[in-house]
Amino acid sequence: MASDTPDLTVPATMSAMLLTGHGGIDTLVYRDDVATPRPGPGEVLVRVTATAKNNTDRKAREGLYPVKKGQVASFAMGGEPTLTFPRIQGADIAGRVVAVGDGVDSARLGERGLLDFNLYADERPDINLTPDYYGHGADGGFAEYVAVPSAQFHAVSNPELHDAELAAMGMCSYQTGYHMMTSARVSAGERVLVTGASGGVGTALIQLCRIVGAIPYAVSQPEKASALIALGAEAVIDRGDLASFVPRVLEATNGAPIDAVMDLVGGEMTDLFIDTMIHDMKARATYPRLSIAGASGGNISEILWTRIYLYQVQIFGVSHGTREEAEQLIGWIRSGQLRPVLHATFRLSELHAAERYFVSRGSNFLGKIVIVPDSQWEQHGTPFALIDQEPRS
Ligand SMILES: NC(=O)c1ccc[n+]([C@@H]2O[C@H](COP(=O)([O-])OP(=O)(O)OC[C@H]3O[C@@H](n4cnc5c(N)ncnc54)[C@H](OP(=O)(O)O)[C@@H]3O)[C@@H](O)[C@H]2O)c1
Q: In this structure, how many other beta carbons lie within 10 angstroms of the beta carbon of residue 316?
Protein backbone atom coordinates (compact mmCIF):
# COMPACT_ATOMS: atom_id res chain seq x y z
CA MET A 1 0.00 0.00 0.00
CA ALA A 2 2.52 2.57 -1.19
CA SER A 3 -0.23 5.22 -1.30
CA ASP A 4 -0.34 5.27 2.54
CA THR A 5 3.08 6.90 2.60
CA PRO A 6 2.65 10.66 2.27
CA ASP A 7 4.66 12.39 -0.43
CA LEU A 8 6.64 15.01 1.48
CA THR A 9 8.72 16.39 -1.37
CA VAL A 10 8.45 20.16 -1.58
CA PRO A 11 9.75 22.01 -4.66
CA ALA A 12 11.57 25.34 -4.32
CA THR A 13 9.00 27.11 -6.48
CA MET A 14 5.29 26.66 -7.02
CA SER A 15 2.37 27.77 -9.16
CA ALA A 16 0.16 30.46 -7.68
CA MET A 17 -2.39 33.09 -8.69
CA LEU A 18 -1.07 36.49 -7.64
CA LEU A 19 -3.39 39.41 -6.98
CA THR A 20 -1.37 42.38 -8.20
CA GLY A 21 -3.66 45.28 -7.26
CA HIS A 22 -7.25 46.47 -6.80
CA GLY A 23 -9.31 46.08 -9.98
CA GLY A 24 -10.82 43.58 -12.43
CA ILE A 25 -9.83 39.97 -13.05
CA ASP A 26 -6.79 41.09 -15.05
CA THR A 27 -5.17 41.93 -11.73
CA LEU A 28 -5.00 38.15 -11.09
CA VAL A 29 -1.81 36.82 -12.68
CA TYR A 30 -0.91 33.11 -12.85
CA ARG A 31 2.76 32.33 -12.23
CA ASP A 32 4.73 29.09 -11.93
CA ASP A 33 7.88 30.54 -10.38
CA VAL A 34 6.65 31.73 -6.99
CA ALA A 35 8.91 30.81 -4.06
CA THR A 36 7.34 28.02 -2.02
CA PRO A 37 6.75 29.27 1.55
CA ARG A 38 8.56 27.64 4.49
CA PRO A 39 6.79 26.91 7.75
CA GLY A 40 7.87 29.20 10.58
CA PRO A 41 7.84 28.24 14.28
CA GLY A 42 4.46 26.79 15.22
CA GLU A 43 3.39 26.51 11.57
CA VAL A 44 2.66 23.70 9.17
CA LEU A 45 3.29 23.76 5.44
CA VAL A 46 0.18 22.54 3.63
CA ARG A 47 0.10 21.15 0.10
CA VAL A 48 -3.15 22.69 -1.10
CA THR A 49 -5.58 20.25 -2.70
CA ALA A 50 -8.69 22.49 -2.81
CA THR A 51 -9.64 26.05 -1.87
CA ALA A 52 -13.19 27.39 -1.94
CA LYS A 53 -13.92 30.72 -3.62
CA ASN A 54 -15.70 33.38 -1.64
CA ASN A 55 -17.47 36.54 -2.65
CA THR A 56 -15.02 38.19 -0.28
CA ASP A 57 -12.16 37.49 -2.73
CA ARG A 58 -13.90 39.51 -5.44
CA LYS A 59 -14.91 42.32 -3.10
CA ALA A 60 -11.40 42.62 -1.64
CA ARG A 61 -9.95 42.61 -5.17
CA GLU A 62 -12.31 45.36 -6.27
CA GLY A 63 -11.74 47.36 -3.05
CA LEU A 64 -15.40 47.13 -2.06
CA TYR A 65 -14.91 47.17 1.70
CA PRO A 66 -15.13 50.89 2.50
CA VAL A 67 -15.87 52.01 6.03
CA LYS A 68 -16.28 55.62 4.89
CA LYS A 69 -18.17 56.82 1.82
CA GLY A 70 -16.12 56.96 -1.38
CA GLN A 71 -13.28 54.73 -0.25
CA VAL A 72 -11.77 52.01 -2.46
CA ALA A 73 -10.44 49.86 0.33
CA SER A 74 -10.30 46.53 2.03
CA PHE A 75 -10.19 45.47 5.66
CA ALA A 76 -8.20 47.72 8.01
CA MET A 77 -9.90 47.11 11.34
CA GLY A 78 -6.58 46.80 13.17
CA GLY A 79 -5.66 50.36 12.09
CA GLU A 80 -3.60 49.75 8.96
CA PRO A 81 -4.71 48.18 5.63
CA THR A 82 -3.36 44.63 5.60
CA LEU A 83 -4.03 43.79 1.94
CA THR A 84 -0.73 44.49 0.18
CA PHE A 85 0.32 43.34 -3.31
CA PRO A 86 1.21 40.88 -4.63
CA ARG A 87 -1.11 38.72 -2.54
CA ILE A 88 -2.28 35.11 -2.96
CA GLN A 89 -6.02 35.02 -2.21
CA GLY A 90 -8.10 32.01 -1.19
CA ALA A 91 -9.33 31.55 2.38
CA ASP A 92 -10.98 28.16 2.70
CA ILE A 93 -8.10 25.75 2.30
CA ALA A 94 -8.08 21.95 2.42
CA GLY A 95 -4.87 20.02 1.98
CA ARG A 96 -2.15 17.84 3.49
CA VAL A 97 0.63 18.72 5.92
CA VAL A 98 3.97 18.21 4.12
CA ALA A 99 6.37 19.97 6.51
CA VAL A 100 6.30 21.28 10.07
CA GLY A 101 8.01 24.27 11.67
CA ASP A 102 9.87 24.35 14.99
CA GLY A 103 7.73 23.19 17.89
CA VAL A 104 5.21 21.26 15.78
CA ASP A 105 4.88 17.49 16.24
CA SER A 106 6.16 15.64 13.17
CA ALA A 107 3.29 13.17 13.69
CA ARG A 108 1.20 15.71 11.81
CA LEU A 109 3.02 15.03 8.54
CA GLY A 110 0.55 13.63 6.00
CA GLU A 111 -2.51 14.85 7.96
CA ARG A 112 -5.52 15.97 5.87
CA GLY A 113 -7.24 19.05 7.25
CA LEU A 114 -9.16 22.30 6.87
CA LEU A 115 -7.89 25.76 7.79
CA ASP A 116 -9.59 28.12 10.23
CA PHE A 117 -9.04 31.08 7.90
CA ASN A 118 -8.69 33.85 10.48
CA LEU A 119 -5.62 35.93 11.20
CA TYR A 120 -6.42 36.26 14.89
CA ALA A 121 -4.93 39.25 16.69
CA ASP A 122 -4.54 37.31 19.96
CA GLU A 123 -5.15 33.96 21.63
CA ARG A 124 -8.61 34.74 23.02
CA PRO A 125 -11.02 31.94 22.15
CA ASP A 126 -14.27 33.90 22.45
CA ILE A 127 -13.76 37.22 20.67
CA ASN A 128 -12.29 38.41 17.36
CA LEU A 129 -12.26 42.19 17.23
CA THR A 130 -10.11 42.82 14.15
CA PRO A 131 -11.25 40.31 11.53
CA ASP A 132 -8.62 39.53 8.92
CA TYR A 133 -7.81 36.32 7.10
CA TYR A 134 -5.49 34.11 5.08
CA GLY A 135 -5.88 35.21 1.47
CA HIS A 136 -6.14 38.86 2.55
CA GLY A 137 -3.69 39.97 5.28
CA ALA A 138 -1.42 36.97 4.51
CA ASP A 139 -1.10 34.59 1.56
CA GLY A 140 -3.86 32.03 1.10
CA GLY A 141 -4.73 28.94 -0.90
CA PHE A 142 -4.81 29.94 -4.57
CA ALA A 143 -1.40 28.25 -4.79
CA GLU A 144 0.18 24.84 -4.46
CA TYR A 145 1.47 25.41 -0.91
CA VAL A 146 0.65 27.64 2.05
CA ALA A 147 2.18 28.04 5.53
CA VAL A 148 -0.37 28.42 8.34
CA PRO A 149 -0.48 28.12 12.15
CA SER A 150 -0.57 24.46 13.16
CA ALA A 151 -3.31 25.16 15.74
CA GLN A 152 -5.60 26.51 13.02
CA PHE A 153 -5.16 23.63 10.61
CA HIS A 154 -7.73 21.17 11.89
CA ALA A 155 -7.46 17.48 11.05
CA VAL A 156 -10.55 16.12 9.28
CA SER A 157 -9.95 12.53 8.24
CA ASN A 158 -13.56 11.62 7.24
CA PRO A 159 -12.92 9.39 4.20
CA GLU A 160 -16.44 10.00 2.87
CA LEU A 161 -15.54 13.64 2.23
CA HIS A 162 -13.52 14.58 -0.86
CA ASP A 163 -10.98 17.36 -0.33
CA ALA A 164 -13.02 19.66 -2.60
CA GLU A 165 -16.09 19.01 -0.44
CA LEU A 166 -14.11 19.74 2.71
CA ALA A 167 -12.96 23.08 1.24
CA ALA A 168 -16.61 23.87 0.40
CA MET A 169 -17.32 23.79 4.16
CA GLY A 170 -14.64 26.38 4.84
CA MET A 171 -14.91 28.81 7.70
CA CYS A 172 -15.43 31.99 5.67
CA SER A 173 -19.03 30.91 5.07
CA TYR A 174 -19.70 28.52 7.93
CA GLN A 175 -18.08 30.50 10.75
CA THR A 176 -19.68 33.74 9.57
CA GLY A 177 -23.09 32.06 9.47
CA TYR A 178 -22.62 30.55 12.90
CA HIS A 179 -21.43 33.85 14.42
CA MET A 180 -24.52 35.55 12.95
CA MET A 181 -26.60 33.06 14.91
CA THR A 182 -24.64 33.15 18.18
CA SER A 183 -24.61 36.98 18.13
CA ALA A 184 -28.41 37.01 17.81
CA ARG A 185 -28.70 34.18 20.37
CA VAL A 186 -30.75 32.03 18.00
CA SER A 187 -32.24 29.15 19.97
CA ALA A 188 -34.21 25.97 19.44
CA GLY A 189 -37.73 26.45 18.10
CA GLU A 190 -37.11 29.97 16.76
CA ARG A 191 -38.13 30.97 13.24
CA VAL A 192 -35.11 32.37 11.40
CA LEU A 193 -35.22 34.21 8.06
CA VAL A 194 -32.13 33.20 6.04
CA THR A 195 -31.48 35.66 3.22
CA GLY A 196 -29.08 35.01 0.32
CA ALA A 197 -30.01 31.43 1.16
CA SER A 198 -28.51 29.70 -1.88
CA GLY A 199 -25.04 31.19 -1.38
CA GLY A 200 -22.09 30.00 0.65
CA VAL A 201 -23.18 31.61 3.93
CA GLY A 202 -26.90 30.98 3.32
CA THR A 203 -26.51 27.24 2.72
CA ALA A 204 -24.39 27.06 5.88
CA LEU A 205 -27.04 28.97 7.85
CA ILE A 206 -29.85 26.62 6.81
CA GLN A 207 -27.91 23.63 8.08
CA LEU A 208 -26.75 25.38 11.26
CA CYS A 209 -30.30 26.43 12.13
CA ARG A 210 -31.38 22.79 11.96
CA ILE A 211 -28.42 21.67 14.09
CA VAL A 212 -29.44 24.03 16.93
CA GLY A 213 -33.15 23.20 16.48
CA ALA A 214 -34.20 26.51 14.89
CA ILE A 215 -36.51 26.69 11.85
CA PRO A 216 -34.93 28.31 8.76
CA TYR A 217 -37.09 30.15 6.20
CA ALA A 218 -35.02 30.67 3.05
CA VAL A 219 -35.16 33.78 0.85
CA SER A 220 -34.08 32.89 -2.68
CA GLN A 221 -35.40 32.19 -6.18
CA PRO A 222 -38.14 29.65 -7.05
CA GLU A 223 -35.77 27.55 -9.23
CA LYS A 224 -33.69 26.77 -6.13
CA ALA A 225 -36.60 25.91 -3.83
CA SER A 226 -36.43 22.12 -4.01
CA ALA A 227 -32.67 22.05 -3.36
CA LEU A 228 -33.04 24.44 -0.40
CA ILE A 229 -35.90 22.39 1.08
CA ALA A 230 -33.75 19.26 0.70
CA LEU A 231 -30.98 21.07 2.57
CA GLY A 232 -33.29 21.82 5.50
CA ALA A 233 -35.30 24.97 4.71
CA GLU A 234 -38.82 24.93 6.12
CA ALA A 235 -40.06 27.02 3.21
CA VAL A 236 -38.57 29.14 0.43
CA ILE A 237 -39.75 32.70 -0.15
CA ASP A 238 -39.18 34.18 -3.61
CA ARG A 239 -37.21 37.41 -3.30
CA GLY A 240 -38.62 38.64 -6.61
CA ASP A 241 -41.69 40.71 -5.74
CA LEU A 242 -40.93 43.14 -2.92
CA ALA A 243 -44.52 44.45 -2.61
CA SER A 244 -45.84 41.05 -1.52
CA PHE A 245 -42.70 39.89 0.31
CA VAL A 246 -43.85 40.35 3.92
CA PRO A 247 -47.32 38.72 3.44
CA ARG A 248 -45.64 35.79 1.70
CA VAL A 249 -43.24 35.30 4.63
CA LEU A 250 -46.16 35.40 7.07
CA GLU A 251 -48.06 32.91 4.95
CA ALA A 252 -45.10 30.56 5.23
CA THR A 253 -44.99 30.96 9.04
CA ASN A 254 -48.80 30.71 9.43
CA GLY A 255 -48.83 34.32 10.60
CA ALA A 256 -46.19 33.98 13.31
CA PRO A 257 -43.43 36.60 13.41
CA ILE A 258 -39.89 35.79 12.35
CA ASP A 259 -37.79 35.71 15.55
CA ALA A 260 -34.44 36.65 13.98
CA VAL A 261 -33.21 37.66 10.53
CA MET A 262 -29.81 36.68 9.11
CA ASP A 263 -29.25 39.52 6.65
CA LEU A 264 -26.71 38.94 3.87
CA VAL A 265 -28.58 41.09 1.37
CA GLY A 266 -29.07 44.63 2.75
CA GLY A 267 -30.16 47.35 0.34
CA GLU A 268 -33.90 47.91 0.02
CA MET A 269 -34.75 44.48 1.45
CA THR A 270 -33.56 45.07 5.03
CA ASP A 271 -36.54 47.28 5.91
CA LEU A 272 -38.86 44.49 4.75
CA PHE A 273 -36.90 41.94 6.75
CA ILE A 274 -37.56 44.08 9.85
CA ASP A 275 -41.27 44.08 9.00
CA THR A 276 -41.34 40.27 9.15
CA MET A 277 -40.30 40.52 12.82
CA ILE A 278 -42.28 43.50 14.12
CA HIS A 279 -45.68 43.22 12.45
CA ASP A 280 -47.26 41.86 15.67
CA MET A 281 -45.15 42.55 18.74
CA LYS A 282 -47.74 40.94 21.05
CA ALA A 283 -47.10 37.62 19.30
CA ARG A 284 -43.39 37.76 20.16
CA ALA A 285 -41.65 36.22 23.15
CA THR A 286 -38.26 37.91 22.53
CA TYR A 287 -36.86 41.11 21.05
CA PRO A 288 -36.56 41.19 17.24
CA ARG A 289 -32.96 40.47 16.24
CA LEU A 290 -31.18 41.38 12.99
CA SER A 291 -27.72 39.93 12.27
CA ILE A 292 -25.95 41.61 9.36
CA ALA A 293 -22.91 40.07 7.66
CA GLY A 294 -23.28 40.97 4.00
CA ALA A 295 -24.77 43.33 1.46
CA SER A 296 -25.31 41.38 -1.78
CA GLY A 297 -28.30 43.61 -2.58
CA GLY A 298 -26.71 46.98 -1.78
CA ASN A 299 -24.52 48.69 0.80
CA ILE A 300 -27.02 51.39 1.79
CA SER A 301 -30.40 50.74 3.45
CA GLU A 302 -32.79 53.54 4.38
CA ILE A 303 -34.49 52.70 7.68
CA LEU A 304 -36.33 54.98 10.07
CA TRP A 305 -34.42 55.10 13.34
CA THR A 306 -37.74 55.22 15.18
CA ARG A 307 -38.58 51.77 13.83
CA ILE A 308 -35.37 50.42 15.32
CA TYR A 309 -35.68 51.87 18.80
CA LEU A 310 -39.46 51.85 19.29
CA TYR A 311 -39.66 48.20 18.25
CA GLN A 312 -36.40 47.51 20.11
CA VAL A 313 -34.80 45.78 17.17
CA GLN A 314 -31.42 44.45 18.23
CA ILE A 315 -28.85 44.75 15.45
CA PHE A 316 -25.61 42.79 15.27
CA GLY A 317 -22.80 43.53 12.82
CA VAL A 318 -20.95 40.30 12.16
CA SER A 319 -17.62 39.51 10.55
CA HIS A 320 -16.05 36.06 10.78
CA GLY A 321 -16.19 34.56 14.26
CA THR A 322 -14.10 33.14 17.06
CA ARG A 323 -11.68 30.27 17.65
CA GLU A 324 -14.31 28.53 19.78
CA GLU A 325 -16.86 28.74 16.97
CA ALA A 326 -14.39 27.36 14.41
CA GLU A 327 -13.70 24.40 16.69
CA GLN A 328 -17.42 23.76 17.16
CA LEU A 329 -17.91 23.77 13.38
CA ILE A 330 -14.99 21.40 12.81
CA GLY A 331 -16.63 19.07 15.34
CA TRP A 332 -19.90 19.16 13.37
CA ILE A 333 -17.99 18.45 10.12
CA ARG A 334 -16.21 15.49 11.72
CA SER A 335 -19.49 14.10 13.07
CA GLY A 336 -21.16 14.43 9.66
CA GLN A 337 -23.79 16.95 10.85
CA LEU A 338 -22.72 19.53 8.27
CA ARG A 339 -22.86 18.77 4.57
CA PRO A 340 -20.90 20.34 1.71
CA VAL A 341 -22.83 22.23 -0.94
CA LEU A 342 -20.36 22.11 -3.82
CA HIS A 343 -21.46 23.50 -7.17
CA ALA A 344 -18.31 22.86 -9.22
CA THR A 345 -14.52 22.82 -9.30
CA PHE A 346 -12.22 24.89 -11.53
CA ARG A 347 -8.46 24.61 -12.15
CA LEU A 348 -6.33 27.27 -10.42
CA SER A 349 -4.94 28.37 -13.81
CA GLU A 350 -8.57 28.99 -14.88
CA LEU A 351 -9.45 31.29 -11.99
CA HIS A 352 -10.45 34.04 -14.43
CA ALA A 353 -13.07 31.68 -15.93
CA ALA A 354 -14.23 30.75 -12.42
CA GLU A 355 -14.63 34.44 -11.54
CA ARG A 356 -16.67 35.08 -14.69
CA TYR A 357 -18.82 32.02 -14.05
CA PHE A 358 -19.39 33.14 -10.43
CA VAL A 359 -20.46 36.65 -11.43
CA SER A 360 -22.87 35.48 -14.14
CA ARG A 361 -24.08 32.32 -12.38
CA GLY A 362 -27.40 30.94 -13.43
CA SER A 363 -30.55 30.10 -11.54
CA ASN A 364 -29.21 26.58 -10.86
CA PHE A 365 -26.30 27.84 -8.74
CA LEU A 366 -26.12 26.66 -5.16
CA GLY A 367 -23.27 26.73 -2.65
CA LYS A 368 -19.61 26.96 -3.51
CA ILE A 369 -17.08 26.97 -6.33
CA VAL A 370 -13.83 25.28 -5.37
CA ILE A 371 -10.44 25.95 -6.97
CA VAL A 372 -7.97 23.06 -7.36
CA PRO A 373 -4.26 23.50 -8.20
CA ASP A 374 -3.57 22.13 -11.70
CA SER A 375 -1.11 19.60 -10.25
CA GLN A 376 -3.94 18.20 -8.05
CA TRP A 377 -6.67 18.40 -10.68
CA GLU A 378 -6.94 14.75 -11.74
CA GLN A 379 -7.47 13.52 -8.19
CA HIS A 380 -9.33 16.38 -6.53
CA GLY A 381 -10.88 18.46 -9.32
CA THR A 382 -12.27 16.14 -12.00
CA PRO A 383 -15.00 14.48 -9.87
CA PHE A 384 -16.77 17.84 -9.53
CA ALA A 385 -15.83 19.61 -12.78
CA LEU A 386 -18.55 21.19 -14.91
CA ILE A 387 -19.81 19.25 -17.91
CA ASP A 388 -20.67 21.59 -20.79
CA GLN A 389 -20.77 24.50 -18.30
CA GLU A 390 -23.35 22.64 -16.18
CA PRO A 391 -22.84 21.07 -12.73
CA ARG A 392 -22.90 17.26 -12.66
CA SER A 393 -26.07 16.94 -10.58
N1 LIG B 1 -19.03 39.51 7.24
C2 LIG B 1 -18.35 38.42 6.91
O3 LIG B 1 -17.50 37.93 7.64
C4 LIG B 1 -18.69 37.76 5.61
C5 LIG B 1 -18.18 36.50 5.32
C6 LIG B 1 -18.60 35.89 4.14
C7 LIG B 1 -19.45 36.57 3.28
N8 LIG B 1 -19.84 37.81 3.57
C9 LIG B 1 -20.78 38.54 2.70
O10 LIG B 1 -22.04 37.92 2.82
C11 LIG B 1 -22.73 37.98 1.58
C12 LIG B 1 -23.04 36.57 1.14
O13 LIG B 1 -21.82 35.88 0.96
P14 LIG B 1 -21.78 34.49 0.20
O15 LIG B 1 -20.39 34.05 0.18
O16 LIG B 1 -22.83 33.60 0.74
O17 LIG B 1 -22.20 34.99 -1.23
P18 LIG B 1 -22.80 34.19 -2.45
O19 LIG B 1 -22.35 32.78 -2.39
O20 LIG B 1 -22.50 35.02 -3.62
O21 LIG B 1 -24.36 34.20 -2.16
C22 LIG B 1 -25.11 35.37 -2.10
C23 LIG B 1 -26.56 35.03 -2.44
O24 LIG B 1 -27.32 36.21 -2.26
C25 LIG B 1 -28.36 36.23 -3.22
N26 LIG B 1 -28.35 37.52 -3.89
C27 LIG B 1 -27.45 37.97 -4.78
N28 LIG B 1 -27.77 39.22 -5.17
C29 LIG B 1 -28.89 39.55 -4.50
C30 LIG B 1 -29.72 40.70 -4.48
N31 LIG B 1 -29.45 41.77 -5.24
N32 LIG B 1 -30.80 40.71 -3.67
C33 LIG B 1 -31.08 39.64 -2.91
N34 LIG B 1 -30.33 38.50 -2.90
C35 LIG B 1 -29.25 38.47 -3.68
C36 LIG B 1 -28.13 35.11 -4.22
O37 LIG B 1 -29.03 34.06 -3.93
P38 LIG B 1 -30.43 33.90 -4.71
O39 LIG B 1 -30.23 34.39 -6.10
O40 LIG B 1 -30.71 32.45 -4.61
O41 LIG B 1 -31.41 34.72 -3.95
C42 LIG B 1 -26.74 34.61 -3.87
O43 LIG B 1 -26.62 33.20 -4.00
C44 LIG B 1 -21.81 38.74 0.62
O45 LIG B 1 -22.18 40.10 0.63
C46 LIG B 1 -20.43 38.53 1.24
O47 LIG B 1 -19.54 39.54 0.88
C48 LIG B 1 -19.50 38.41 4.72
A: 19
